[in-house]
UniProtKB/TrEMBL annotation, chain A:
Pfam families: STT3, STT3-PglB_core. It comes from Mikania micrantha. Residues 475-506 have a biased composition (Basic and acidic residues). InterPro entries: Oligo_trans_STT3, STT3-PglB_core, STT3_N. Its EC number is 2.4.99.18. This is dolichyl-diphosphooligosaccharide--protein glycotransferase. Residues 582-641 form the STT3/PglB/AglB core domain. Residues 755-766 have a biased composition (Basic residues).
TrEMBL record, chain B:
Its main location: endoplasmic reticulum. This is Dolichyl-diphosphooligosaccharide--protein glycosyltransferase subunit DAD1. It is found in: Endoplasmic reticulum membrane. It is a multi-pass membrane protein. Subunit of the oligosaccharyl transferase (OST) complex that catalyzes the initial transfer of a defined glycan (Glc(3)Man(9)GlcNAc(2) in eukaryotes) from the lipid carrier dolichol-pyrophosphate to an asparagine residue within an Asn-X-Ser/Thr consensus motif in nascent polypeptide chains, the first step in protein N-glycosylation. N-glycosylation occurs cotranslationally and the complex associates with the Sec61 complex at the channel-forming translocon complex that mediates protein translocation across the endoplasmic reticulum (ER). All subunits are required for a maximal enzyme activity. Keywords: Apoptosis, Endoplasmic reticulum, Membrane, Transmembrane, Transmembrane helix. The keyword Magnesium does not apply. InterPro entries: DAD/Ost2. Pfam families: DAD (PF02109). GO terms for cellular component: oligosaccharyltransferase complex. Belongs to the DAD/OST2 family. GO terms for biological process: protein N-linked glycosylation.
UniProtKB/TrEMBL annotation, chain C:
It comes from Mikania micrantha (bitter vine). Residues 53-306 form the OST48 N-terminal domain. InterPro entries: DDOST_48_kDa_subunit, OST48_MD, OST48_N. Belongs to the DDOST 48 kDa subunit family. The keyword RNA-binding does not apply. This is Dolichyl-diphosphooligosaccharide--protein glycosyltransferase 48 kDa subunit. Component of the oligosaccharyltransferase (OST) complex. Keywords: Endoplasmic reticulum, Membrane, Transmembrane, Transmembrane helix. Subunit of the oligosaccharyl transferase (OST) complex that catalyzes the initial transfer of a defined glycan (Glc(3)Man(9)GlcNAc(2) in eukaryotes) from the lipid carrier dolichol-pyrophosphate to an asparagine residue within an Asn-X-Ser/Thr consensus motif in nascent polypeptide chains, the first step in protein N-glycosylation. N-glycosylation occurs cotranslationally and the complex associates with the Sec61 complex at the channel-forming translocon complex that mediates protein translocation across the endoplasmic reticulum (ER). Pfam families: OST48_MD, OST48_N.
Length: 797, 118, 458
């Protein structure tokens, strides 16, 4: 009696179990390494600069986390912040997505209880890399559900390095996406797992993971619209099964309940149009389930009768319900959608109606190069992956295809959503690569086994050489294997395990294996390794050079080395040491979060941009002449005004470049500010051809006050590349109190009202007629030298 | 599909009879589950009617009440699917495991309901 | 090595008579220095706003005697007057940042330049630091005086040779006939400025007039000219209509700056002179003959006001708390009931007396007043009000803005945030929601029963 032998590799079940076990252990270690890789590739900014929080939004999250760790969760839940949006304040508990802060706070608490004294800042800085490791593991799990372990590992390593995800999760980028992407992938994994197994346990876990996603990011609406779409797709393509019902129905009920628990979402979970798709499909799936059930217990003839009856009656009810729904939705001006969602559906909506959303640089559509920058090789691996998913098409692979298509559309609308595309692209590419690698290694193994067989034929073995389970789907992949990447550390035994796991078996006894000629496969293998090297090099370069800048510290290289511009922190430190605790600082909304977090002063507007009128007030003040601006700021109890100016060093993101947005937003609420007043022939200028309104505006004056003193009278602005229009002027209602070393941040104080009101203008007997305070104000300036060497240019960007 | 009213009435009656006979063939435990589902749906309808009369002031209480009924109905249907011996896909799932999952899910549901109610 | 002096007699080294006297000496030094320190601190107390040292600058020393009644009345009230000629090179208002005087009287209408370190900027600095000023101009007022006045909001007639002429209410007297000596009785109606006794006799005035910008809220006309007055050169014929006419001409004005420094501008130096104080007055066109003009009373009362002996308020002890508690909370909640109280005192010249008024208002302000309430007083200087916090959350301010004619302006603002309800401050059980509670609990019970029935049925 013959011992059962696996015909391709001629192994016994005992040795294949050993192989299986070995494969599992290997997979475990590979996953561990992937986690370490994902963590360490994001540490460039910590190495190059320091362990500091980047950008603007993370500072707000950091401040909230500090509050949470200091005061506990109940105070955090009810926190009313009176140091921002003065004098309106902001109810933090109800307007912030708590997932990120709660996660970091919990990690900090746990570490404290183990007596590991990491500061809150360290925990916040390193949360993102840790969760990106988790996200890579979640990608492995998801892809394993779709195609198998091999594809899973490939997808995981791709996700660990994809530049798009790195850009939003470097060490220091403490923003919602850091945990949200992990939650997204994990939720999808649990959904697919429930779909594959039909277990209610995983459905429960799915709902809880969805809850975590809702806590973390506003992008949760993507999930709650994608899953219903997939369910609908399955129903329409005839793939309805009871597992689908178990996967979807509890998610809707539990998920809506859990989403309503989060204060930010609240009743929006049932009232906004973004969630209606889920309810609609909920009803549809019940109808379909009922139909299938009745079909199951009736005879076909009776079922037809039932169908006609139901259709005729049900149609009437349906129309009534739909009419009511449409009336309710149409009564709201935005049809129930929020502004940001509408701008996703209609890309031109924001620029027409909501200039604030349109002005954020992350909300602009991406350019073609950014796809290659952010996805690199994956951009042309994805179509191969789609084909691989179609053969064979399962519920899980149809889900991944739908996910990819939707995310490609949304990434085309807003560059920030490239982040949602990244996991889908990695999954698809991972599937494609593992399929290709499967073919290549099988070819090589087949060749080797043929070689050894020809040696063994002499020994009398009667093993048929061509008994192998066909892998039909490979055929199509062979045509597409031009540019494939593969991970060199993979072993052949991996494929063994995968062959055993694959459920699709249509085994025939005599079938030719689909293999390539061995020389071609060796060559293709070599090429894929090379391409993999390119991908790795690009990802590491992107992580190190392009995406590690903390943007709070700037650097530039010049002929005498590296220059570091730490002006922002210099200005915030000055503010925190030289002003009273209750003083209010007005600046453009970009710097609000940083000012409250680092300088600890009350601000008027900040990056949350929830109150358009307040922002428009500040914008109007910046665009008005000095006296009107003083009046506006005085009515808001402002003491200090902060502007960012890049003209001396060539920093392009300064307030003068953003000034037109201030005019537009201010003009949207206060009609006396008209944008054409600030443009000369439709062009925005600040040189001698600028309009008088522009030259008299507060922003111009505060940016260029005493600017001519830096280069001996010319006043050459390095960003706009011209000399400024009005060179010598005095400030009547503001006094300069601080300018940083490179003139990047300038702080002014509102002059108090004059003690006496003067009579009619007299012939000036002496030059001391002007306000004597001007002479004293300059002495408080930073005493750093601001004269730059000639010909020394700072390169930014 | 224009049928004359008489024949459609006959058909309706025949349909009704066949449905009854088919249904009475289901095992008892499934019938218990169906009763449970009906009770939940009935309670939900009562609440919706009450809200239509009184108005939706404590909306969170209304939502939690309705969703608890809908949730129990859905979960019971899931249990029924898993326990039903006619479903081939779940033939290797032990009914104890199905019931345990059901209990777990209900626990989570009721915990959330309690939180959201007040 | 400084040795702390111990008890005499206990230290064996003190048996030596020399060290004994040394010890006594050091004790005496410590004692005197301590008492000196105490004395010094008392002399600059901020608690006593009536300041004592006044610098009087004169054009001509004869003014000392010709205006002696005025000066003596000041000295009788406790002021130390330091008389100097306007071109004295040793004039200095400050030394090393310290002010040497608390008030300044300028009886120097013709001086073009002051001696020493004094000029327009120094005088304005003096006013801006909170000190008081009396300025008297006259028919030949110099540009210096005009500039000082213009900086404070008082515009003298630009024509240097113009004086106020009134053919309707001049003072009837023996000698001159050009009607430049005016009997003015158009006083401002204010008890604070001019005292509670009405000045019956008109005030004699001879000098130049000035006008005030009606939009200027810091200046007040104390003595206005009559509707028939005008400002012109008495000796030449008028070719154009005069620029200043009628009641818009102010003869004496006061300025109360934002930091509550007080300045008096008078167009006539003779207003303060002994001659005008003692002379009888009769207004043309009226039959009343007064034995004594109202100048002395007018000037005395006005000087009391200028030097803060009347109408100077201070507000202290701002307190606010919830009804029923005594501590000041750091943050209020919407719909809280709270109480606010403040104590206001008025300086009487020698002590702080409770200020009694019924028009002090408290605002609860966030970009506009949400609550505006008049405070009630207990007649001992305590003003209080209680109100309910509005239903809006945000950062509010308790604002008291009190600007009454002649009194110092009180501008108090205290910032306090107002938060919305916490998640556990709502009603616990809402009656209309009982069916929903019932339904939820019934589903739980049904689940329980169902699982029993399901598990244990055959």
């Amino acid at each position: 009696m013959a011992v059962p032998v696996d015909h391709l590799t001629k192994q016994t079940p005992a040795s294949s179990t050993l192989r299986l076990a070995f494969g599992n252990v290997l997979a475990f270690f590979i996953l561990l390494l992937i986690g370490v890789l994902a963590f360490s590739i994001r540490l460039f900014s910590v190495i190059k600069y320091e362990s500091v929080i980047h950008e603007f939004d993370p500072y707000f999250n950091y401040r909230v986390t500090q509050f949470l760790t200091k005061n506990g969760i109940y105070d955090f839940w009810n926190w009313f912040d009176d140091r921002t949006w003065y004098p309106l304040g902001r109810v933090i508990g109800g307007t912030v997505y708590p997932g990120l802060t709660l996660t970091a706070g919990t990690i900090w608490k746990v570490l404290q209880s183990f007596n590991i004294p990491l500061s809150v800042e360290t925990v916040c800085v390193f949360t993102a890399p840790v969760f990106s490791a988790f996200a890579a593991w979640a990608t492995y799990l998801l892809t394993k559900e779709v195609k198998g372990t091999g594809a899973g590992l490939t997808a995981a390593v791709l996700l660990a390095m994809v530049p798009s995800y790195i850009s939003r999760s470097v060490a220091g980028s403490y923003d919602n996406e850091a945990v949200a992407i992990f939650a997204l992938i994990f939720t999808f994994y649990l959904y697919v797992k429930t779909l594959n197994t039909g277990s209610l346990f995983y459905a429960t876990l799915n709902s809880i993971s969805y809850f975590y996603m809702v806590c973390s990011w506003g992008g949760y609406t993507f999930i709650i619209n994608l899953i219903p779409m997939h369910v609908l797709l399955c129903i329409v393509t005839g793939r309805y099964s009871s597992r689908l019902y178990i996967a979807y129905a509890p998610l809707v009920v539990l998920g809506t309940l859990l989403a309503a628990l989060v204060p930010v979402v609240g009743f929006n979970a049932v009232m906004t149009s973004e969630h209606f798709a889920s309810f609609l499909v909920f009803i549809v799936i019940h109808v379909v389930a009922l139909a299938y059930y009745i079909k199951g217990i009736l005879s076909p003839k009776m079922f037809k009768v039932a169908a006609t009856l139901v259709v005729s009656v049900g149609l009437v009810i349906c129309c009534a319900v739909v009419a009511v729904l449409v009336a309710v939705v149409a009564s709201s001006p935005t049809k129930g959608w929020s502004g940001r969602s509408l701008s996703l559906l209609d890309p031109t909506y924001a620029s027409k109606y909501i200039p604030i959303i349109a002005s954020v640089s992350e909300h602009q559509p991406p350019t073609w190069p950014s796809y290659f920058m952010d996805l690199n090789v994956l951009a042309f691996l994805v179509p191969a992956g789609i084909i691989a998913c179609f053969a064979p098409l399962s519920d899980a692979s149809s889900f991944v295809i739908l996910y990819l298509v939707m995310s490609v559309y949304f990434s085309g609308v807003m560059v920030r959503l490239m982040l949602v595309l990244a996991p889908a692209a990695c999954i698809m590419s991972g599937i494609a690569l593992s399929e290709a690698f499967d073919v290549l290694t099988r070819s090589i193994k087949f060749y080797i086994s043929n070689l050894s067989e020809s040696l063994q034929i002499d020994a009398g073995d009667s093993v048929p050489a061509n008994n192998v389970s066909p892998q039909n789907e490979v055929l199509k992949n062979e045509k597409k294997e031009d540019t494939l990447k593969e991970r060199p550390s993979r072993k052949n035994k991996k494929k063994e395990k995968e062959n055993i796991e694959k459920p699709s078996v249509k085994s025939k006894t005599e079938k030719r294996p689909l293999v390539l000629p061995v020389e071609a496969s060796f060559f293709a293998l070599f090429l894929t390794v090379l391409l993999g090297g390119f991908y790795v090099v690009h990802s590491v370069w992107a992580a190190a050079e392009a995406y590690s800048a903390p943007s709070i510290v700037l650097t530039s290289h010049s002929h005498d080395g590296l220059h570091v511009f730490d002006d922002f922190r210099e200005a915030y430190a000055w503010l925190s040491h030289n002003t009273e605790v209750d003083d209010k600082v007005a600046s453009w909304w970009d710097y609000g979060y940083q000012t409250t977090a680092m300088a600890n002063r009350t601000v008027i507007v900040d990056n949350n941009t929830w109150n358009n009128t307040h922002i428009a007030t500040v914008g109007t003040a910046m665009s008005s002449p000095e006296k009107a601006a003083w009046e506006i700021f005085n009515s808001l109890d402002v003491k200090y005004v902060l502007v960012v100016f890049g003209g001396l060093v060539g920093y392009p993101s300064d307030d003068i470049n953003k000034f037109l947005w201030m005019v537009r937003i201010g003009g949207g609420v206060f009609p006396h500010i008209k944008e054409p007043d600030y443009l000369r022939d439709g062009q925005y200028r600040i040189d001698s051809q600028a309009t008088p309104t522009m030259l008299n505006s507060l922003m111009y004056k505060l940016s260029y006050f005493r600017f001519v003193e830096t280069d001996g009278g010319k006043g050459y602005d390095r960003v706009r590349r011209t000399e400024i229009g009005k060179k010598h002027f005095k400030l009547t209602h503001f006094e300069e109190v601080f300018t940083t070393h490179h003139w990047m941040v300038r702080i002014y104080k509102l002059k108090p009202q004059r003690n006496r009101i003067r009579g009619k203008a007299k012939k000036s007997k002496s030059a001391k007629n002007q306000n004597p305070e001007i002479g004293h104000s300059l002495s408080k300036r930073s005493t750093g030298s601001w004269l730059t060497e000639s010909g020394w240019s700072y390169g930014f960007g | 599909m224009g049928k004359s009213p008489v024949t459609s009435k006959d058909d309706a009656q025949a349909l009704f009879h066949s449905l009854r006979s088919a249904y009475s063939a289901t095992p008892t435990n499934l019938k218990i589950i169906d009763l449970y589902v009906l009770f939940a749906v009935f309670t939900a309808l009562i609440q919706v009617g009450y809200m239509a009369i009184v108005g939706s002031f404590p909306f969170n209480s209304f939502l939690s009440g309705v969703l608890s009924c809908v949730g129990t109905a859905v979960l019971a249907v899931c249990l029924r699917i898993q326990v039903n011996k006619e479903n081939k896909e779940f033939s290797d799932l032990p009914p104890e495991r199905a019931f345990a999952d059901f209990v777990l899910c209900n626990l989570v549901l009721h915990l959330v309901i309690m939180n959201f109610l007040g | 090595m400084f040795k702390v002096p111990t008890l005499l007699g206990s230290d064996p080294t003190l048996k030596n008579p020399k060290t004994k006297t040394m010890a006594k000496f050091s004790i005496a030094i410590v004692f005197t220095s301590i008492s000196l320190l105490i004395a010094l601190t008392h002399s600059f107390s901020i608690e006593k706003p009536t300041d004592r040292r006044i610098l009087v600058l004169l054009d001509d020393l004869a003014l000392k005697s010709s205006h002696s009644i005025f000066f003596n009345s000041l000295q009788a009230r406790g002021f130390e007057l330091d008389f100097k000629l306007s071109d004295d090179p040793k004039i200095a208002l400050q030394r090393y940042g310290q002010h040497l005087y608390d008030g300044l009287v300028l009886f120097t209408p013709t001086t073009e330049r002051f001696g020493g370190s004094l000029d327009v900027a120094a005088i304005l600095d003096f006013v801006d630091s909170g000190k008081d000023l009396i300025v008297a101009a006259d028919a030949s007022a110099s540009d210096l005086i005009r500039n000082i006045a213009a900086e404070c909001g008082v515009d003298f007639d630009e024509d240097p040779s113009a004086v106020v002429i009134d053919h309707g209410s001049y003072a009837v007297s023996g000698s001159e006939g050009d009607h430049t000596l005016i009997a003015a009785d158009d006083f401002i109606q204010s008890d604070v400025l001019l005292g509670s006794t009405i000045i019956k006799a008109p005030v004699l005035f001879k000098g130049i007039g000035h006008s005030l910008n009606p939009a200027n809220s810091l200046v007040l006309k104390v003595l206005s000219a009559s509707p028939s007055a005008y400002s012109a050169n008495p000796k030449s014929k008028l070719s154009t209509p005069p620029s200043l006419t009628g009641s818009s001409i102010s003869l004496v004005s006061v300025v109360q700056a934002r930091n509550n420094a007080r300045v008096v501008f008078s167009g006539s130096l003779d207003l303060f002179s002994n001659k005008f104080f003692k002379s009888p007055v009769q207004k043309a066109g009226s039959s009343n003959k007064y034995a004594k003009s109202g100048n002395e009373q007018f000037v005395t009362e006005l000087s009391k006001w200028v030097f803060h002996e009347r109408g100077h308020l201070k507000a202290v002890n701002v307190r606010h708390h919830r009804v029923g508690e005594t501590d000041e909370p750091a943050i209020y909640r919407i719909n809280d009931d709270l109480q606010y109280s403040v104590e206001i005192y008025e300086w009487s010249g020698s002590s702080w007396e409770p200020y009694i008024a019924n028009d002090v208002q408290i605002q609860f302000y966030m970009m506009s007043p949400y609550v505006l309430k008049t405070m009630s007083t207990n007649k001992k200087g305590l003003y209080h009000a209680s109100f309910k916090v509005p239903d809006v959350y945000g950062v509010f301010q308790f604002k008291v803005e009190y600007q009454r004619l002649g009194y110092t302006s009180l501008s108090l603002a205290k910032q306090i945030p107002v938060r919305p309800f916490r998640h556990n401050e709502y009603e616990r059980f809402i009656p209309t929601a009982f069916p929903y509670y019932g339904a939820s609990f019934s589903t739980m019970a049904a689940f329980f029963i169902f699982s029993f029935v399901y598990l244990y049925s055959k």
